[in-house]
Each structure stands twice: as C-alpha cells, then as structure tokens.
Amino acid sequence: MTATGLVLNALNSAGAAHAAPEPMWVPAPIPPQAPVQEGMVDVDGSRLWYWDTGGNGQPVILLHAGTQSGAGWVYQQPALAMAGYRVIGYSRRGYYRSDAGDASNPGVGSDDLQRLIQHLKLERVHLVSAAQGGFFAIDYTLEYPDNVRSLAVISSYMGITEADYAAVNTRLRPKFFATLPHDFQELSPSYRAGNPEGLAAWQALEHQAIPGKRITPKMKQPLTWARLESIKHPTLLMTGDSDLYTPPSLLRMQAQHMPHAEVHIVREAGHSPYWEQPVTFNQILLAFLAKQK
After folding, report:
1. CATH code reported for the domain at 32-291
2. Which among 181, 176, 157, 154 is positioned nearest to 167, based on CA atoms?
3. What letter does residue 210 receive in the DSSP assignment?
4. What pTM value is reported for the model?
5. Where do the DSSP E strands lie in 188-279?
6. What pLDDT, on the 0 to 100 scale, is given for residue 9?
7. Which among 28, 25, 74 has a CA at the least distance from the CA of 242?
8. Taking the CB of the first residue and of the last residue of the chain, which one, N or C, has fewer CB atoms within 10 A?
9. 195-228 residue pLDDT tens
10. 180-210 as b/e, with b when 16 or more CB fall inside 10 Å?
11. Cα-Cα end-to-end distance for the chain
12. Can you name the residues that pair with 127 across neighbouring β-strands?
C-alpha cells in the first residue's frame, strides 16, 4: 500500500465506525523453534553472537529493538524458516551473549552487520528491523546498497535529524516518558491486559537483553529526509495503531518520503507488533518478501 493509499484507507475506516466489531484477537503461544547453528563473529576485538537456520533459501537478517536482543524473534524464526528462508538473528554489542567491548568505542552498527554478512559469506539479504534496529538497517542500506534485497522497518522512528521531525517526536514523548517501564512504553494496553503470559515472556527477554551497560553503536551519517528518499529498494513500513514511539501519524510522515514503500498499520498493537500480533505481522511480512522472489 502506498502512502496515499494508507491515508485513503484510514478515511474509509473512519467512515465505517459503526460497523460490527471484529472478533477479539487470541493470544498466540510461542511456537517450536527451527533448528539453528550458533556462532560468534569478531568486530574490532568484540564478538557478536548470532544464530542461523542455514539452508539455501534467500537470507533474512533480523535486527532487534533497543530493549530486546537476537533472542527476541521467537514468532518469526520458525515462520520464516518454514517458508523456505535462511533466517539469521544476532545481538548487537553489549546485548545478550554479545561482548560489550570498549564502551568508549561502540563501533558502527552498519559495519558490524557487514562483518556478520561477510563472515557468513552472504550476498544479497533481506533486512527486517524493529525499532532501534531500523536505525542500523537503514544506515546499512544506504552504505551497502548492493547487498540489500529488501528492507522492512517496523515501529522505528529511524533517528531522522530534520527539525520538523524532531519537533513532532518531542511532542510525542515528553521528558517523563523515559522514566516509564519499558513494557508500558512498548506494549499496547490490549496486550498487557489480555495476555499476561505473553507479557511475562516479553519482560523476561527484555531483562536478559542487556546484562550490563547499554551500548549504542554509531551510524555512518545522520539520516536526513534527502537520504531517506534516496532509498529505492523494496521497502515495508509497519507500526501498531497504539505505538507510543511511532504512531500511525509519524509513520505517514515517514511514508511521505518513501512513496514507493508498502505501508501497514497493525490493529491492537503497540511498539512491538511482531510480538503482540505475530499472526498478522507474519502474514504481512511473508507476503512482502514473496513479492521480492
């Protein structure tokens, strides 16, 4: 769906406000995981942990959110593997099972990803990124465009440095927002109220994700509207309708600068639609990836 189509779809939805309500979503149990091989890759003296389902399918690399790690893709890993993809996840520096290294030298996220891709001898890859992972997926796409087959950016405010965008984000998240618990910031009220088991599982993954001081890799260059507009790869933009970081209005702002992108808003989901609504999320993602084959 284009940015224009998204706006029209929103208007149509508003006109159907009195339609019969849809059935309430049902919590999805965590499925059995596909077999993987695990390893470590050196990045300037630090080591990143990764897992890899292997096989001859097109590689899909999953880039985690700032409160999660490479272990947080439990709903996507088996679905993508079953669809025939080679699925790879990893933890950035300082996250679960990866070395923190020197905090004064956090490295460059896109270069670390390139080391992983070279280590696994991959060619063109699909990048699927969530939240802060989107910063590094976009940066990688701009720095290594020939290595990217497609780009999916989920619930990410991308780190765009433009003044108009910064003003919107300041209105969205006042200073006290940073003091709130991460599950309140990132999971929708529907999910927290309706799936206590899933909430506990998400919290457990969050608590293990950063065992020490949080490390944030650098980006190659600041992200501007002009640089975002230069990306012509097949792109999927998605967010949840209850996302406090990247609400639908902010997603539309991003989509105006990526008019070729396919855009989706997941109902009854917050900042983690891949976790909160995995059935819907996986259907959208798999349909998008299938178009690139």
Report:
1. 3.40.50.1820
2. 157
3. -
4. 0.92
5. 235-240, 262-266
6. 47
7. 25
8. C
9. 999 999 999 999 999 999 899 999 999 999 999 9
10. eebbebbbbebbbebbeebbebbeebbeebb
11. 18
12. 61, 151
Is 149:229 a contact under the CB 8 Å cutoff? no
Domain boundaries, the chain: 32-291
Q: What is the pLDDT of residue 20?
A: 56
Axis-axis angle for helices 163-172, 248-255 (nearest 10): 170
Per the listing, tokens 């999927």 go with: 236
Number of H helices, E strands in the chain: 12, 8
Q: What is the mean pLDDT of residues 123-137?
A: 98
pLDDT at 45: 85
Which pair of structure tokens corresponds to residue 269? Answer: 């989901």
The residue behind tokens 């798999």 is 286
* Cα–Cα distance for residue pair 266/249, rounded to 1 Å: 13
Bridge-based pairing of strands 86-90 and 46-52 is antiparallel
DSSP 3-state of 51? strand
Residue 103's pLDDT is 86
DSSP annotation of 245: S
User: What are the pLDDT digits (tens) for 72-111?
Assistant: 999 999 999 999 999 999 999 999 999 999 888 999 999 9
Token pair of 213, please?
Answer: 């001081």
Q: Cα–Cα distance between 86 and 29 in angstroms, integer? A: 23
